[in-house]
């Protein structure tokens, strides 16, 4: 069974490229609002559902948050592959920090892993948000 995001009724949430900017448990300032530490956020859902969802070839998208869940599942997979060769916590930490600093292709750019999943950015500012 595919697991879908619980963030289905987030109509008043801002979005970029059709991807909702859902609240995150973070102390880093960014375009997404900050979530309470005791609430489940979309990253928690992606981590919780990763093991089950990674095996599915097809995923019926029921809400915009499902698109974000798909992308986060992909990102977790990339992160785990980067950690494969790391022998120490320091090496692993450095690998994840470097992954976070890499330029990420946005919808419409070559290298974006899911063409057609998200609409193209309507402006340079929107591309910078996603």
UniProtKB/TrEMBL annotation:
Compartments (UniProt record): Cytoplasm, Cytoskeleton
Predominant cellular place of this UniProt entry's protein: cytoplasm
Pfam families listed in its UniProt record: P21-Arc
Entry keywords, A to Z: Actin-binding, Cytoplasm, Cytoskeleton
Signal peptide segment: none
Protein name: Actin-related protein 2/3 complex subunit 3 isoform X2
GO biological process, one term: Arp2/3 complex-mediated actin nucleation
UniProt similarity note: Belongs to the ARPC3 family.
Provenance organism: Arachis duranensis (Wild peanut)
Designated gene of the protein: LOC107461383
């Amino acid at each position: 069974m595919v697991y879908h995001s619980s963030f289905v009724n987030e109509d008043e949430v801002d979005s970029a490229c059709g991807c909702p900017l859902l609240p995150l448990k973070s102390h880093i300032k960014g375009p997404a609002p900050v979530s309470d530490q005791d609430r489940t956020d979309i990253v928690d859902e992606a981590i919780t559902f990763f093991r089950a969802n990674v095996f599915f070839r097809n995923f019926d998208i029921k809400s915009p948050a499902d698109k974000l869940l798909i992308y986060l599942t992909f990102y977790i997979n990339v992160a785990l592959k980067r950690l494969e060769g790391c022998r120490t916590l320091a090496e692993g930490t450095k690998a994840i920090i470097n992954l976070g600093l890499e330029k990420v292709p946005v919808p419409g750019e070559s290298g974006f892993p899911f063409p057609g999943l998200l609409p193209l950015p309507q402006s340079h500012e929107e591309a910078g948000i996603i």
